[in-house]
Amino acid sequence: MKNWIVIYSDSFLVGVEMRKTVLEEHDIPCVLNNSQSTSYAGVGFASGDVELLVPQEFVEKAKSLLQ
């Protein structure tokens, strides 16, 4: 996705999804990029991170909402 920036990443899927919900409630377009192994996702020992991305023009607003 061109011009989409990672603003947050973590191995704990639920935490990333909660932040995505906050952004969606403020009409900020966002997507998750999940590189975790599906066998262990959400169990607390998954390998890989889940990334939260927003379009470049929303980066500052998104970061301020998540502080």
List the SSEs and their pairings.
Elements (H helix, E strand, L loop, with lengths): L3 E7 L2 H13 L5 E4 L15 E6 L3 H8 L1
Antiparallel strand pairs: 1-3, 2-3
Describe the structure.
By secondary structure, the protein is an alpha+beta fold. The protein has one domain (4-66): 2-Layer Sandwich (Alpha-Beta Plaits). 31% of the residues lie in helices and 25% in strands. Strands 1-3-2 form a 3-stranded antiparallel β-sheet, covered by helices on one side. It is globular, with a radius of gyration of 12 Å. The mean pLDDT is 87.
Q: Kindly identify the CATH topology.
A: Alpha-Beta Plaits
How many domain units?
1
Radius of gyration: 12 Å
Question: What are the low-pLDDT stretches, counting only 5+ consecutive residues below 50?
Answer: none
The pLDDT mean sits at 87
Sheet with the most strands, sense and barrel status: 3 strands, antiparallel
Distance between the first and last residues' Cα: 25 Å
The count of helical stretches stands at 2
Would you report the number of β strands? 3
Which secondary-structure class do the elements indicate? alpha+beta
Q: Give the topology string: H per helix, E per strand.
A: EHEEH
The percent of residues in helical segments reads 25-40%
CATH class: Alpha Beta
β-strand percent reads 25-35%
In the sheet with the most strands, the strands line up as 1-3-2
What characteristic shape results from the CA principal axes?
globular
CATH architecture group name: 2-Layer Sandwich
